[in-house]
Amino acid sequence: MIPMIDISGTKYLLFEKRSNKLRRQPGEICFPGGKLEPGESLEECALRETVEELQVSPQQIELLGAGDIYISPFNLLIYTFIGIIRDYQDTFGADEVEEVIKVPLGFFQEYPPEKYESKLIHQLPEDFPYEWIQGGRKYPWAKGSHDILFYRYEDLTIWGMTAQIVKSAVELMEEYGIG
Q1: Per residue in 128-168, pLDDT tens?
Q2: Are 82 and 169 in contact (CB under 8 A)?
Q3: 2-111+155-175 falls under which CATH superfamily?
């Protein structure tokens, strides 16, 4: 979920700083989210995770619509939804969230992310059966790269998948006149 809140007429994106108790990506800045449970729709998953992590009621969330699908170069598929949380009181579940962070939507609209290109390395196992493919060891493997984005707001760094999701969501919001 890409949650927005309104404070005195200004829209903010609401982020979480992941708890340092978590095994994966402790201390990183992200949005609420998690794994799909059996029988659950993607939308239901986004709402459930947001309710759990931000300790809000489902009635406080107005879902505006689906965002883009993010496909990482590491076989991770993330379905995003953009929503507004009404009457948010800075609540969160301390098991997963260390703190919540509010960044004005206007910041992302005004400042593009910094971009760094990461080369994807093609590394085959030692026992790869080159004799089975045309060209063998001289096969012309495709090369690729992946842009790693960074937003720096005050003393915060929002980067990686979260920055990619922010960039995409802000572009969609501008396209559809949200914000």
Answers
A1: 999 999 999 999 988 888 899 999 999 999 999 999 999 99
A2: yes
A3: Nucleoside Triphosphate Pyrophosphohydrolase (3.90.79.10)
